[in-house]
Specification:
This is DUF2231 domain-containing protein. It comes from Sphingobium xenophagum. InterPro entries: DUF2231_TM. Keywords: Membrane, Transmembrane, Transmembrane helix. Pfam families: DUF2231 (PF09990). The structure is a single chain. This protein has 223 residues and is an all-alpha fold. The chain has a domain of 136 residues. The protein has a two-stranded antiparallel sheet with strand order 1-2. Helix 9 runs antiparallel to helix 10. The longest helix is centred in the C-terminal third of the chain and has 29 residues. The protein is elongated and about 60 Å long. The protein starts with a helix and ends in a 9-residue tail after the last helix. The relative contact order is 0.15.
């Protein structure tokens, strides 16, 4: 139930607070996050409870109903609308690759610096190239997931949208910088290290912001 609800919300641009307009979606998200932080039982926790009434599996019935509603909704959409919806759903599948590769490249560079071995720079370069390609794909699909708006009434979504776009741009720049340093090893790597460090921080923030849409608001990492 929790997964299907999150996926549907991520696909619904109005529920996300995409585009200009009233800020009601943000207030709803804050309320949901506050309830989760206070320990109140939400959709995610309900899914772990044995919800049987009179021998009937309520969770299973609700999931079946959700699937029926989604199937009916899809039948009412044109091919173009279904394509946009499908591409938007691919965003959540692609995002894990640039996150892992950029942070991994930072770790490899640190390890190579510790071992004083430049061979690790080549490994980091390959990871940055693949990570940049993944970031481009993730940003491209993210625009389908969040709708093609320049501004959003949900400030979290707007930050997530533009930070993701910048990560794709600077990911390409990082891959180019790594290639340039590979050809001229004596060139200073100070700027490269600054951008790589900032990229690692930005990726971490971006992952946190993305999690707010899928796992219960700003307090989804509350202990």
């Amino acid at each position: 139930m929790s997964v299907s609800t999150s996926a549907a919300a991520h696909e619904d641009h109005d529920a996300l607070g995409a585009g200009p307009g009233a800020n009601s979606a943000v207030e709803t998200q804050k309320k949901d996050g506050a309830d989760a932080g206070d320990g109140h039982m939400g959709m995610g926790s309900m899914s772990t409870v044995d919800m049987n009434m009179g021998g009937r599996d309520i969770a299973g019935d609700d999931m079946d109903m959700g699937g029926m509603h989604e199937e009916t909704a899809n039948k009412n959409k044109s091919f173009g609308e279904r394509l946009v919806s499908w591409l938007g759903r691919l965003h959540t599948m692609v995002i894990h690759f640039p996150i892992a590769l950029f942070i991994g490249a930072f770790g490899v560079e640190l390890f190579g610096l510790w071992r004083r071995n430049r061979d690790y720079q080549h490994v980091a370069h390959i990871m940055l190239v693949v990570g940049a390609l993944g970031a481009i794909a993730a940003a491209f699909l993210g625009w389908f997931a969040g709708g093609f708006y320049l501004t959003d009434r949900n400030p979290i979504l707007m930050t997530h949208r533009w930070l993701g776009t910048l990560i794709a741009v600077f990911g390409v720049a990082l891959a180019w910088m790594a290639a340039r340093h590979g050809k001229v090893p004596e060139r200073s790597r100070t700027l490269y290290w600054v951008v790589l460090g900032l990229m690692t921080l930005a990726i971490s923030i971006q992952g946190f912001l993305g999690g707010t849409f899928m796992h219960g608001g700003l307090y989804h990492l509350a202990f």
